[in-house]
């Protein structure tokens, strides 16, 4: 490789893939494979449904922050020992490969079409009196909170199959969210599923025998990890039962000296969060530069799993925060997340105007 820049192929253009591409673009020949033309600040999605104009700053075309990257708008479908194969039949050679395919969630290809999706969701909300949200994880909770605050005249029902909301954080955080929903007129039904196959004319029934009338429904149940495309690849033995890629302390895929994985797709035992994905990206960018300069394995930086920290918004003026040693709701988490949803900060990290 002497004299020639190494070719780094990154699969996945979320916060993990976008961040590492930006960090490496001046040191290596970087290719980013992503089925869409833009990076989306995914945690701002629920605000964009109640205020579609908010989405304009949260959807950023890759070419706005990646000035020296070969962008391939396609899906990776297989990995060979030296190439990535794409859906449109191309073979993309790599010296190093970084997998950042997070969760499987197909989005439209262009920013314009994604913005139109938010406008359509917003119209759906505006045109409805009764709204049913299925799934009490972070997406369902944040959407219910946004609608309850921006459209207080709508009847919102949130149905969750588990015994408490947001099982990824502690029970105190769930209890605080439940209390807030009660005070803000949102009906929360726990321990039951909505029968989606047998609903008709806006009448839904649950496995606990409840009937819910709703003019519109949002499905916010968990998404699978974005690893199904790896099941027949050279990495098939590195995907665990949950669909995550097994990595070592340097975030290399186990048993592969030139393949890394970062972000939600990894099996690191920690919460799946965007700020953590950014830390993975920073570490792998550094490790790759060490390897490219001929540095030894022993010089590579090691990753320490992050402590439990997450903030879930409850509309524009409230939130519940899970910190490693405390659970807090009210003005502190509100000031940290609810107003701008870290959009300005994330844009600045990408080298853009907040
Ligand atoms: C409601 C909600 C609120 C959240 N709030 C916060 C928060 O406040 N702070 C925070 O830090 N985190 C938050 N998170 C978590 C955060 O959204 C994720 O941790 C983060 O988006 C993970 O980034 P990623 O790049 O690893 O994966 P993803 O964002 O899932 O991106 C994966 C990318 O890979 C691409 N891809 C998938 N398969 C292929 C393929 N075969 N070929 C090519 N490309 C492919 C996709 O198009 C996508 O661009 C929240 C999540 C939710 C649901």
Automatic annotation (TrEMBL):
* Oxidoreductase in keyword set: yes
What cellular component terms from Gene Ontology apply here?
A: cytoplasm
* GO molecular function per UniProt: electron-transferring-flavoprotein dehydrogenase activity; flavin adenine dinucleotide binding
The domain of life is Eukaryota
Instruction: Alphabetically list the UniProt keywords.
Output: FAD, Flavoprotein, Oxidoreductase
The record's annotation in Pfam families points to: Pyr_redox_2
Q: Which Gene3D superfamilies match?
A: 3.50.50.100
What does UniProt give as the signal peptide span?
none
Q: Where is the FAD/NAD(P)-binding domain?
A: 8-281
SUPFAM superfamilies associated with the record: FAD/NAD(P)-binding domain
Q: What does this protein do?
A: Putative FAD-dependent oxidoreductase.
Q: Which family does it belong to?
A: Belongs to the FAD-dependent oxidoreductase family.
Q: What is this protein called?
A: Putative Apoptosis-inducing factor
Record the organism.
Zostera marina (Eelgrass)
